[in-house]
Design brief:
Double Stranded RNA Binding Domain; globular; 2 helices; alpha+beta
């Protein structure tokens, strides 16, 4: 499973922070790892320099083999929290989509 992380220019992005986010996503999606070809994260600061609550937005797209891509979104005050919430939503969406595909 290839994990790609994209950030806007308002989000601190370096190898260390990207590695932590990738580890978080891999841990949440571990049981689907063999069925996913690609996971893409888009991290943005909705309010930019204005600040405000729940201003970090994460869009997560997971591409399971033989199925349509699954896209989910989450917003939180911290990037890590938004990534965790998006990964949790992706797990539920993948469970639903892949279970439906077996029947």
């Amino acid at each position: 499973m290839f994990v790609q992380i994209n950030t806007d220019n308002q989000i601190k992005s370096d190898a260390e922070s990207n590695e932590r986010l990738e580890e978080r996503v891999r841990a949440k999606l571990k049981r689907f790892e063999q069925r996913l070809t690609h996971v893409e994260l888009h991290v943005s600061d909705v309010n930019g320099q204005k600040g405000g609550d729940a201003d970090k937005r994460v869009s997560l797209e997971a591409r399971p083999t033989g199925h349509e891509p699954i896209a989910v979104h989450a917003e939180a005050t911290r990037v890590e929290t938004a990534v965790t919430q998006a990964a949790d939503k992706a797990v539920r969406a993948l469970e639903h989509a892949l279970e439906r595909g077996r029947h």
